[in-house]
Amino acid sequence: MSEPHKSLPVSEPDPDDTPLTPASLPVRLLKHWDWQAKLRWFAAEILIVVAGVLIALAINAWWQGRQDAASEATYLALIHRDLGQMANNLEELSIYEDKEFQDGITAYRVLSMAAPSEVEQEAASKGLESLLERRTIHVTQPAYEDLINTGNLRLIRNQTLRDQLVSFYEEAERVVDIHNKNNAVFVDALYAHEVLRAGLLYFDSQSGVTRLARSDSLLRTQTRGGYVDGPDPIWSLPPDAPVWNTVRAILLQRMRVAAYAREFAQQQLEDTRDLQRLVETELNR
Prior knowledge:
Layout: H1 27-111, H2 118-130, H3 142-150, H4 159-197, H5 210-222, H6 243-283
Helix pairs in contact: 1-2, 1-3, 1-6, 4-6
């Protein structure tokens, strides 16, 4: 016969083997455990937030840098264009003033002759008449003015180039203003007054401007005969008339103005071309 089944004795659990749970921990140990966990969580959150802010700032700085670089390139291109236009204007002024000077030389030689021919008298009259006109110039600087007015001059990252731009435009404004004022005083107030208003020459301008050409043509048509149709009164003066010295002195002063304007235009043209090359070099970087 089989022996009856005997149940194994059940051992009592060892109190030391009981798993630890928050409920079974002492109050002091439980509080210490919660503080460490929360500290790690807080540190992780702070790290994520700081990293996010830093990444956002880096992206924004990168994007702003790209925008600033694009704006700088646009401004430099516009300044390069303005300098090119100014250089063209200065080149035209230099040619114009050189012609004025040469017209003055021609007229002075004829005025110094004892008995000039009619052809020589006509050439001198045209030269004297040409010197009655003058040409002003202005500084072409819309892009630079926009840089200054908007506070965007900082966009030009090249400090040396930025300083050169400021120096160039300030000096250009000064010398151009002097040039224009000299023209107004010496040409209009002195030369024109002595030569034209004194009745020594007739101002028979052959202007290429249509409106002026029409008005001059109408004036000549309505004043035919006598005074206007005769030769310039200056040629009726005797060779020893004191007014000849006055006319020659005034003419020399007018030629000096033309010579100064020619030198000014050439020097300013050279400075403008130099700055334009610097801007072009910066654009090509």
